[in-house]
């Protein structure tokens, strides 16, 4: 969502949050996450550590694998996802209004051109 990038900048933190937001139930490890985001392992590790500390992500040990997933129980995660939902709804509403305005402007312009050609 481009509006979130405008609000918060294009950051690894935001990329990770949006990845988990857009893919419910998604889980991964640092290496795969870095590959998915096309970012360095160190950069992703730092962002994941920050998001774990904030309670947004959680890390689990499954066998020998260290898995990262969204912390669905966190009040911060719920609040953050509700915020993203509201931003997405506002963005969609704005797009719809812009389309309607453009169509109304096109019709008004076409009507003027049509009446102008009768003269």
* Broad structural category: mainly alpha
Q: Can you list the strand order of the major beta sheet?
A: 1-3-2
Number of domains: 1
Beta-strand residue percentage: 5-15%
Q: For the terminal residues, how far apart are their CA atoms?
A: 48 Å
Approximate shape: elongated
Output the helix-strand order: HHEHHEEH
* Low-pLDDT stretches: none
Share of helical residues: 55-70%
Mean pLDDT score, rounded? 84
Characterization of the model:
With 119 residues, the chain is mainly α. It has one domain (2-118): Orthogonal Bundle (Arc Repressor Mutant, subunit A). It has helices at residues 2-8, 12-22, 30-37, 41-53, 75-118; strands at 27-28, 57-62, 65-70. The protein has a three-stranded antiparallel sheet. Helix 3 (30-37) crosses helix 4.
Sequence-ordered SSE layout with sheet pairings:
Blueprint: H1 2-8, H2 12-22, E1 27-28, H3 30-37, H4 41-53, E2 57-62, E3 65-70, H5 75-118
Helix pairs in contact: 3-4
Summarize the structure.
This protein is mainly alpha-helical and 119 residues long. It has helices at 2-8, 12-22, 30-37, 41-53, 75-118, and strands spanning 27-28, 57-62, 65-70. Strand 2 and strand 3 (65-70) form a beta hairpin.
Keywords:
single chain; 119 residues; mainly alpha; Arc Repressor Mutant, subunit A; three-stranded antiparallel sheet; 3 strands
């Amino acid at each position: 969502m481009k509006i979130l990038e405008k609000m918060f900048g294009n950051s690894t933190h935001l990329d990770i949050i949006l990845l988990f937001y857009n893919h419910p139930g998604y889980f991964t490890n640092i290496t795969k996450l870095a590959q998915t985001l096309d970012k360095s392992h160190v950069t992703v590790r730092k962002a994941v550590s920050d998001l774990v500390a904030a309670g947004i992500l959680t890390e689990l040990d499954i066998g020998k694998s260290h898995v990262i997933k969204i912390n669905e129980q966190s009040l911060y995660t719920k609040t953050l996802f509700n915020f993203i939902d509201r931003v997405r709804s506002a963005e969609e509403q704005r797009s719809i209004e812009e389309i309607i305005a453009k169509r109304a402007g096109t019709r008004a312009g076409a009507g003027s051109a049509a009446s102008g050609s009768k003269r």
